[in-house]
Each structure stands twice: as structure tokens, then as C-alpha cells.
Design goal:
CATH topology of the largest domain: Four Helix Bundle (Hemerythrin (Met), subunit A)
Number of strands: 0
Shape: flat
Oligomer: single chain
CATH class of the largest domain: Mainly Alpha
Strand content: under 5%
CATH architecture of the largest domain: Up-down Bundle
Length: 136
Amino acid sequence: MSQEVDGYVPENNENFMNPKQLEYFKSKLISWRDQILKDCSETITDLQDNQLEADVIDAAAKEADYKLTLRARNRDFKLLKKIEEALVRIDNGTYGYCEETGEPIGVKRLDARPIATLGIEAQERHEREERTHRDI
């Protein structure tokens, strides 16, 4: 999902969250959001064009496909909320910093997961705690 803004790609040796980096991640998030909205719109159109299948097997297969598609769209809606929250963090100056430690998350991690709110160490700690509570 890497995307360049006028050929710019953030580097680790730059000042963290400088204006160019912020613009890069904002553009990336907006592009991602727009693609999800487009996909959702196409899904709505497909569902509205729903035609009944004469064959029971075809109808069952179509229904299964719709259920999978709707589950994917549900995940997309949750992702849209996280994208919007990331855009707010860009606007308020907290984007790119770990919610737990306040330390920079890192350019490579943000490029791979622009909605990240935790640094790698905090994320790993969070996942260990989840596994521990899940296994109890």
C-alpha cells in the first residue's frame, strides 16, 4: 500500500513527522479511505441489482457470496473509523506517536500500517496480554 506524494517517500533519517511525512501519511490514509468507500458503493450497487436465481444451488452460492462480501464490508467500516481517527491525530499533532509511551512509532511501521497507534514494543506487550487473558 506504499504510495508516493510527488515522488516523496519518508526516510528514517528525517525529522520524525515533519510536514512532508505528515502530508505523505495523510494522502495515504485519504486514498485508502476513498478506495474503501468506492468498494462499499460497488457492493451496495451489486446488492441492489440482486436477481433471484431459479436454481436452488446457484441461489445458495450467491447468498454465501453476499454474506462473505457483507462481512468484508463490515470490517471495512471498522477500518474507516480507524482511518478517520488517524486523520484526526494528524490534524492535532499526535499522529505517529505511541498512545502508551509517547515514543515515535516509526516510519516503516506507519508505512506498513498507517492506522497504528502503538509502537512495536507496546503492540507486542498488548498482544501477549491478550493471549494470556484468552488462555485463562
